[in-house]
Amino acid sequence: MENESFYERFRCSLIMPLSLFWSVRHALNDLNYYRAKVGVEPSYTFLGGNNILFLADNFFGFETPFAVPPVHQDIGPILPDIYPDLSPSLFEFLESHPRTMYFTLGTQAYTTPKNYIILLQSFIELINQNILDGIIWSTVKTDINELPSFITILSSNISIPTSNILNNLYSNIYVTNFAPQFALLSHKNLKIYLSHGGASSCHESMYTATPMLMFPLTNDQEGNTEKLVNTGMALKISKFNLNVNDIIVKVKRILTEKSFKESAKRMQILAKVNSKRKYRGADLIEVVLNSVKYRGNMNDNGEWEVDNNVLLNDLITPDTRMGFIKGKYLDVLGTAFLIIIILVGSLGYGIWKFIRFVGKLVKSEVSLKSKKE
What we know:
Layout: H1 6-23, H2 25-37, E1 54-56, E2 72-74, H3 88-96, E3 100-104, H4 113-128, E4 134-138, E5 150-153, E6 158-161, H5 162-166, E7 173-176, H6 181-186, E8 190-195, H7 199-207, E9 212-214, H8 221-231, E10 234-236, H9 244-256, H10 258-274, H11 278-295, E11 297-298, E12 304-305, H12 308-311, H13 318-327, H14 330-372
Parallel strand pairs: 1-2, 3-4, 3-8, 4-7, 8-9, 9-10
Antiparallel strand pairs: 5-6, 11-12
């Protein structure tokens, strides 16, 4: 919100949270049902509240810094210790194509057939102009049957069968339903990652210092894109105005301007250091579970009942127990404000009285002088 208008800040601060709560109210009720089954108090926010431990798969540097209470712990990026290796065919493709771009929209996102055509046209142009020499496309949920039978090469106005690309008959484009993403991003010849901007994809790209071309489609992807663009390791293309020339220009910039790779390496340091905090997250869960033995209560049915205000007392800040007015020091600040007003008012009143007194003296002297004359 740092650079947004008043309207946008108002909408995001008040209207959007209410809209979000309304849309997820059934999921919250389901979550509270399971909380009640294990003796945990209900909560009506996914952010946990003041007395519920909330573990976030994120880290400052990628996430915009903001003040958080101790019950809110950032433990990301959470990355597996082991990843699948490259298949022999993918390894061979990467080894023989030193300027490769990887494209995937993850396991949930997808775009329109028109946008897929524009992307494919861009890939071919990037290869024909010798900007890239390889493209790896992990289709995942893409319905390739929706694509037209032919793709037009814009620079030559020649059409080629789409099936040639999809069946890997176009030697510079490798199409697969699934690809071991982390292994791809770790390879020295993978230069750019064209991504929808999902959190896991962003974390892996930062961890491997791979510059990104962002293509956000839904949910948190727009926000993730804005954050990565602000880090200096990414550029954005729009699903509403996808353009071949725009893609080519931005790919060129990412490949030729050193700042993108340098920013990616800076983010790599942050991602690698913070990735160790997943173990702290596991430790925090274990601390809470074991604390139940000493701070929980057994009800008449022999079931554990948990008082989160007691259970998480070590992480609950005093201001949350003091109430809104005392906790925010509004009573102290209000009193200080009144004292200042009284002092300023008294001083102003004194000055006004002094000025009136001097004015009367001057007027009296003038009057006396005129009578003598």
